[in-house]
C-alpha cells in the first residue's frame, strides 16, 4: 500500500518536521513548545516516515534501537541535576551561563533535551514494536 | 539510673541468644542472671520514701515520650519482685529447658519481658508505660507460643494476645484522655494534684477504659479464661509471667490510679464485685482441676481477684493488706509453679490423680513445697498467714459482712487447693505411673527453696527494712502514709477466729472434693455459655465476617470492582453535597460563544460515536474527534502548550490504535438490556456528581497560591518566559523527572510484554 | 459557559465509565482513553478558565492582569503524555490478555494464572 502522494509528502515533511521539533524544543523556554511537544512532533515525523516507507526503512533511518533514546534522555535529565553539585547547589538546581554563539544556556535546557529524547524513544519504541506485529 | 537499667534490659535481651550460644546452655544463663540481680540491688538502693521522678531523658520529644521513672515504694516493690523472681526464673529456666534447641530465643523473650515489665511499673510517662505494657503482652504471646509447633500452644498464645490486646487499646485511649485532662503525660504530675475533672463523662470514660485494661491484663472475671490457657507456656514462664508479675500489672495499674479514682461512685462497686466474682470463680474452678498447673492457674486467678477486691474495699488498711498479700502470693505461687515444673519435668505428668509418694523420693524438696503450700493456705507461722490476717482485719474494719463471708469462703477453697497441689503429689500413696526417673537438679530446686525460705523468714523476723518497704508501697498507692505492723501474733482477735474457721472449712472442702468434682462435671455444660465460649464465638464470627466481605468485595470481576468504586464515589459526593450549599448561585455567567458551543458539541459527538458504533475504526475516529476538540478548547483558553501536546498525542493515539486495530477483538453485544440500564444509571450518576463538582469548583475559582509566585519568578529565576515550561523543567523538575521515568518504564513494559507474547500463543 | 463546560465534563465522565463497564475488553480501552480526556478537562476547569489569556510574560513587562493559571497546565501537560504511555501499555496488555485467554469478555477473565 505504497501511496505516491504519501511518499512525496513524507520526503518533504519528514526533515521539516524533525527540524520543527528541534525548533519547538529550543524555543520552548520562552514561547509555546518544549521537550514534550518537540519529542511528540519528532515521533510523529517518524510515524509518517514509517507509513510512507515501511517500518524497516524507518528503523534504518533511526539507526539505533529507540530504547537507547529513552536511556539517553533519562541520563540527560538525571545528569542535568548533577551539575549543580559542583557549585554546592541542591540537586536539579537550574544553572545558567552565557556562551559565545549559543547565547544563554543552562541546565534546564539539558533537562528539556532529556525529556525530548525520552519522549521520542518511548513513542517510537512502542509504535515500532506494534508496527512489526 | 533505673531508666537506663530498663533500657539496658532490651539490649541484654537482644544479646541473650548470642550469649547462650557462646557461653553454652549452662554458663549463658548464669551470666544473664547478672542483669536481674543488678536491677534488684539498684532498685532497693534507691530512696523511695518520697515519691520522685528520676533522671528522665527524651525519647521522642515531639510526642512527649520520655524515659522518666517514678520512684516510690510501690514501684520499687514491684521492681524488686520482677527482678528478684526474674533472677530465679532465669536460673530455673536454664535447667528446665537445658536441651531445648531454642534456649537462646527463650532468653531473648524472657529478658525482654523483664525489661518491659520493669518499664510498666517504673514509668512515669504514660506513653512509655503504654509501650511497655504492650510489649509485655507481646512477649507473653511469644512465650506462651514458645512451643510453636503445637497447635494448642499457638491458639492459647493468640487468645492471650487478643484479650490483653483489647485492654491495651483501652489503655491507650485512657492515656490520651488523661493527657487531655491534665495536659501532661507524666503520671507523677497527675497524681500530685488530682483535681476535679472538667467533665464527669470524661472521668467516667477514663475509669471504664482503665478498668478494662486492668481487668483483661489481670485476668479478672469475665476475662479470666485466657490465663488457664496460657499454661501452654513452659513452666518457668507460667511461674514468672502468669503468676508473679505480668498478670499483676492490672492490679498495679488500678493501684496507681487509686488516689485519683477511689472516691468515684463506680470504683468501689466494680472492684468489689469484679474482684469478688473472680476470687470465687477462680477458687471454685481450681478445685475441680486435675492438672497441677491448671490448678495453680485457677488459684492465681482467685488470688488476683482478691487483690482487686482489696483495692475495692478502699481503706488504707485494705490497701496495705493488698500489698502484703501481693508479696506473699508472688513468693508462694512462684515457688509452687517451680515445684509443679519440677514434677512435670521429672515424672512426665502433671495429673494429680496419677501422682503420689514424691515426698519419699525428694525429701528436701518436699519440705520446701510444704512450706509454700502452708503459706498459701495461710497457716501459722508463714507469710501467707500474715497477709490473710491483714486482709480479714481490713474487711472487718470496713464493715462489709457479705464481702467478709466471701473472702473467708474463698480462702477456705484456697486451703483445699493448696492441699491438692502439694499434699496429693507428695504424700498420697504412689500412683502407678509416677515413678520419678531422676532427682531434680540443684538449679531447679533453688527457686522453691529460696522462696519457701523467704515465706518463712519474712514471717518470723519481719525486719524493719522489709516492713518499711511494704509500708512505703502502701503509701505510694494511697498517697497518704499509714502504719503497717507485720506480726504473727496479734493476740486472740476476731481475725484469728476467722483464720481457724477458714482452715476448718478448707480441710472440709479438701475432703469433700470428690463430691465437688462430680458437681463440677455436671457443670461442664455451662462451658457452652462461658466467657471462653463467647471468645471463640467472637473470633470465629470475625473470621467469618472477613471471609464474607472478601467474597463479596473481592470477586475477581473487574466490572464489579469498578461498580463498587464508582458507587462509593457517587455516595461520597452526595454526602458532601450539603456542604456546598450556596455555591451554585455564585457561578459566574459570562455567556457562551458559538465557537465554544461548537467545541462542546464536537466533544460530545465524538463520544457518542465511540459509544454507539459497532465498527472499531469508527469508534477510534470518534475518540480522536473528542481529543482534538479538547485540544481546541485548550487553545481557546490560553493554553497553547497543552493544545500542541494534545494534537500531537491525539495523532499518535490514532496511529497506535490503527496499528493494533485489526488484531483487537470485534465488538459483540453481550450485556442484557437490564445490565445496560443499570450501568447507564451508575455512569450517569457519576457524571452528574462530577458535573456538580465542577460547578462548585467554578463558582469559587480559587487560583492556586503558587501561580503568582511562578508568574513573578519565571523570568528572573528561571530565565524563561513560558511559565508552563519553566515549571516543568526548572521549578518542579524533580516531578518531571519522575514523570519521564514513568514514561520510560511504560516503554520498557510494552517491550517486555511484546517479548512475552510468544509464550502464550 | 461554565455550566456548559461542567455538563460536558460530566457527560464525558459518564460516557467513559459506561464504556468501562461493558463486557468487551476493547470498550474498556476506549473508555480509558475517554476518561483521560475527561480528567484533563476537569483539572483544566479548576484553573478558572480565562479566555484568550497569555501564558507568557513579555520581556521586562509587569505581570499582565489576567493570565491563565500555569500550575494546572503544567500538571495536564505531563498527564497527557503519561496517559498516552499508559494507554499504549494497556493496549498491548489487553491485546495479549485477550489472545492468551482466547476471549475478550471481561467477565470470563477471572483467574490471575494462565
Molecular structure report:
Chain A starts with a helix and ends with a helix. Chain A is elongated and about 55 Å long. The model of chain A has no long low-confidence stretch (mean pLDDT 88). A two-stranded antiparallel sheet of chain A has the order 1-2. Chain A has one domain (4-131). Chain A is mainly alpha-helical and 133 residues long. In chain A, helix 1 packs antiparallel against helix 2 and helix 2 (35-53) packs across helix 3. Helices cover 71% and strands 6% of the residues of chain A. Chain B is mainly alpha-helical. Chain B is 74% helix and 2% strand. Chain B has helices at 2-32, 34-44, 73-96, 103-122, 126-144, 151-182, 187-192, 200-217, 226-229, 235-244, 249-256, 258-261, 267-287, 292-313, 316-347, 358-361, 363-377, 383-398, 401-427, 442-460, 464-478, 494-511, 513-523, 531-553, 558-576, 594-612, 616-636, 640-661, 673-699, 706-718, 723-731, 733-756; strands at 52-60, 65-71. Chain B has a two-stranded antiparallel ribbon with strand order 1-2. In chain B, helix 10 runs antiparallel to helix 15. Chain B is elongated. The model of chain B has no long low-confidence stretch (mean pLDDT 86). Chain C is built from three helices and no strands. Chain C is mainly α and 114 residues long. The N and C termini of chain C lie far apart (51 Å). Chain C has one domain. The mean pLDDT of chain C is 81. The relative contact order of chain C is 0.14. At the B-C interface, helix 25, helix 26, helix 27, helix 28 and helix 29 of B face helix 1, helix 2 and helix 3 of C.
Descriptive labels:
heterotrimer; B: about 750 residues; mainly alpha; two-stranded antiparallel ribbon; elongated; C: about 110 residues
Amino acid at each position: 500500500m505504497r501511496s505516491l502522494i504519501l511518499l512525496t509528502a513524507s520526503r518533504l515533511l519528514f526533515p521539516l518536521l524533525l527540524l520543527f521539533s528541534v525548533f519547538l524544543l529550543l524555543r520552548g523556554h520562552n514561547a509555546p513548545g518544549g521537550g514534550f511537544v518537540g519529542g511528540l512532533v519528532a515521533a510523529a515525523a517518524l510515524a509518517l516516515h514509517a507509513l510512507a516507507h515501511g517500518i524497516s526503512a524507518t528503523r534504518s533511518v533511526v539507526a539505533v534501537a529507540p530504547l537507547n533514546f529513552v536511556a539517553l534522555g533519562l541520563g540527560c535529565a538525571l545528569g542535568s541535576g548533577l551539575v549543580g553539585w559542583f557549585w554546592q547547589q541542591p540537586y536539579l538546581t537550574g544553572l545558567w551561563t552565557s556562551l559565545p554563539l549559543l547565547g544563554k544556556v543552562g541546565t534546564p535546557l539539558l533537562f528539556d533535551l532529556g525529556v525530548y529524547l525520552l519522549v521520542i524513544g518511548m513513542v517510537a519504541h512502542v509504535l515500532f514494536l506494534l508496527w512489526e506485529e | 539510673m533505673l531508666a537506663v537499667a530498663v533500657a539496658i534490659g532490651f539490649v541484654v535481651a537482644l544479646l541473650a541468644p548470642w550469649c547462650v550460644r557462646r557461653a553454652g546452655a549452662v554458663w549463658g544463663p548464669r551470666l544473664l542472671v547478672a542483669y536481674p540481680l543488678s536491677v534488684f540491688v539498684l532498685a532497693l538502693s534507691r530512696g523511695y520514701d518520697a515519691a520522685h521522678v528520676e533522671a528522665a531523658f527524651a525519647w521522642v520529644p515531639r510526642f512527649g515520650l520520655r524515659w522518666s521513672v517514678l520512684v516510690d515504694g510501690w514501684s520499687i516493690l514491684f521492681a524488686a519482685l520482677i527482678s528478684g523472681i526474674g533472677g530465679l526464673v532465669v536460673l530455673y529456666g536454664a535447667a528446665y529447658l537445658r536441651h531445648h534447641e531454642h534456649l537462646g530465643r527463650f532468653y531473648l523473650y524472657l529478658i525482654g519481658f523483664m525489661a518491659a515489665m520493669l518499664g510498666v511499673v517504673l514509668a512515669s510517662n504514660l506513653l512509655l508505660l503504654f509501650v511497655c505494657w504492650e510489649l509485655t503482652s507481646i512477649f507473653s504471646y511469644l512465650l506462651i507460643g514458645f512451643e510453636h509447633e503445637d497447635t494448642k500452644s499457638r491458639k492459647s498464645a493468640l487468645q492471650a494476645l487478643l484479650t490483653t490486646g483489647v485492654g491495651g487499646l483501652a489503655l491507650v485511649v485512657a492515656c490520651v484522655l488523661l493527657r487531655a485532662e491534665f495536659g501532661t503525660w507524666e503520671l507523677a504530675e497527675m497524681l500530685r494534684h488530682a483535681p476535679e475533672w472538667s467533665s464527669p463523662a470524661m472521668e467516667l470514660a477514663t475509669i471504664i477504659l482503665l478498668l478494662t485494661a486492668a481487668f483483661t491484663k489481670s485476668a479478672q472475671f469475665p476475662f479470666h479464661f485466657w490465663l488457664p490457657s496460657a499454661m501452654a507456656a513452659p513452666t518457668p514462664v507460667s511461674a514468672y509471667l502468669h503468676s508473679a508479675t505480668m498478670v499483676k500489672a492490672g492490679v498495679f495499674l488500678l493501684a496507681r490510679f487509686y488516689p485519683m479514682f477511689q472516691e468515684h461512685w463506680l470504683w468501689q462497686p466494680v472492684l468489689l464485685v469484679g474482684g469478688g466474682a473472680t476470687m470465687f470463680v477462680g477458687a471454685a474452678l481450681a478445685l475441680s482441676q486435675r492438672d497441677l498447673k491448671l490448678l495453680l492457674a485457677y488459684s492465681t486467678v482467685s488470688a488476683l481477684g482478691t487483690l482487686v477486691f482489696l483495692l475495692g474495699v478502699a481503706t488504707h488498711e485494705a490497701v496495705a493488706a493488698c500489698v502484703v498479700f501481693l508479696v506473699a502470693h508472688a513468693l508462694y505461687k512462684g515457688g509452687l509453679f517451680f515445684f509443679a515444673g519440677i514434677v512435670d519435668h521429672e515424672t512426665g505428668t502433671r495429673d494429680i490423680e496419677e501422682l503420689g509418694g514424691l515426698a519419699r523420693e525428694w525429701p528436701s524438696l518436699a519440705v520446701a513445697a510444704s512450706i509454700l503450700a502452708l503459706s498459701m493456705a495461710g497457716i501459722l507461722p508463714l507469710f501467707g498467714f500474715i497477709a490473710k490476717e491483714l486482709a480479714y482485719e481490713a474487711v472487718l474494719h470496713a464493715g462489709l459482712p457479705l464481702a467478709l463471708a466471701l473472702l473467708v469462703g474463698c480462702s477456705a477453697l484456697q486451703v483445699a487447693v493448696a492441699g491438692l497441689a502439694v499434699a496429693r503429689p507428695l504424700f498420697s500413696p504412689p500412683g502407678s505411673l509416677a515413678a520419678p526417673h531422676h532427682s531434680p537438679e540443684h538449679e531447679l530446686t533453688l527457686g522453691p527453696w529460696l522462696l519457701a525460705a523467704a515465706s518463712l523468714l519474712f514471717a518470723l523476723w519481719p525486719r524493719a527494712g522489709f516492713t518499711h518497704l511494704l509500708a512505703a508501697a502502701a503509701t505510694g498507692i494511697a498517697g497518704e502514709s499509714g502504719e503497717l505492723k507485720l506480726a504473727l501474733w496479734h493476740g486472740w482477735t476476731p481475725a484469728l477466729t476467722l483464720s481457724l474457721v477458714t482452715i476448718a472449712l478448707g480441710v472440709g472442702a479438701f475432703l469433700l472434693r470428690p463430691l465437688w468434682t462430680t458437681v463440677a462435671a455436671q457443670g461442664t455444660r455451662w462451658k457452652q455459655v462461658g466467657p471462653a465460649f463467647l471468645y471463640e464465638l467472637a473470633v470465629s464470627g470475625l473470621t467469618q465476617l472477613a471471609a464474607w466481605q472478601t467474597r463479596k468485595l473481592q470477586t475477581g470481576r473487574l466490572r464489579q470492582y469498578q461498580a463498587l468504586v464508582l458507587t462509593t464515589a457517587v455516595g461520597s459526593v452526595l454526602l458532601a453535597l450539603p456542604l456546598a450549599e450556596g455555591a451554585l448561585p455564585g457561578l459566574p455567567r459570562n455567556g457562551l460563544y458559538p465557537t465554544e458551543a461548537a467545541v462542546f458539541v464536537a466533544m460530545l459527538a465524538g463520544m457518542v460515536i465511540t459509544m454507539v458504533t459497532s465498527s472499531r475504526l469508527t469508534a477510534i475516529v470518534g475518540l480522536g474527534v473528542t481529543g482534538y476538540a479538547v485540544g481546541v478548547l485548550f487553545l481557546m483558553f490560553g493554553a497553547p502548550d497543552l493544545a500542541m501536546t494534545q494534537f500531537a498525542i491525539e495523532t499518535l493515539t490514532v496511529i497506535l490504535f490503527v496499528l493494533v486495530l485489526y488484531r483487537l477483538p470485534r465488538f459483540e453485544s453481550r450485556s442484557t438490556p437490564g445490565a445496560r440500564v443499570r450501568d447507564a444509571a451508575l455512569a450517569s450518576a457519576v457524571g452528574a456528581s462530577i458535573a456538580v463538582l465542577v460547578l462548585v469548583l467554578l463558582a469559587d475559582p480559587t487560583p492556586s497560591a503558587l501561580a503568582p509566585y511562578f508568574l513573578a519568578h519565571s523570568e528572573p529565576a528561571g530565565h524563561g518566559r513560558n511559565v508552563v515550561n519553566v515549571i516543568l523543567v526548572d521549578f518542579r523538575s524533580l516531578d518531571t523527572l519522575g514523570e519521564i521515568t514513568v514514561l520510560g518504564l511504560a516503554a520498557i513494559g510494552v517491550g517486555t510484554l511484546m517479548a512475552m507474547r510468544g509464550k502464550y500463543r | 459557559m461554565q455550566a456548559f463546560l461542567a455538563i460536558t465534563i460530566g457527560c464525558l465522565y459518564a460516557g467513559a465509565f459506561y464504556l468501562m463497564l461493558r463486557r468487551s475488553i476493547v470498550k474498556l480501552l476506549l473508555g480509558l482513553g475517554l476518561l483521560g480526556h475527561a480528567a484533563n478537562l476537569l483539572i483544566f476547569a479548576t484553573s478558572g478558565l480565562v479566555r484568550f489569556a497569555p501564558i507568557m510574560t513579555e520581556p521586562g513587562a509587569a505581570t499582565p492582569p489576567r493570565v491563565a493559571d500555569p500550575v494546572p497546565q503544567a500538571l495536564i501537560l505531563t498527564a497527557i503524555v503519561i496517559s498516552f504511555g499508559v494507554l499504549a501499555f494497556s493496549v498491548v496488555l489487553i491485546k495479549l490478555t485477550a489472545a492468551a485467554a482466547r476471549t475478550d469478555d471481561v467477565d470470563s477473565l477471572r483467574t490471575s494464572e494462565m
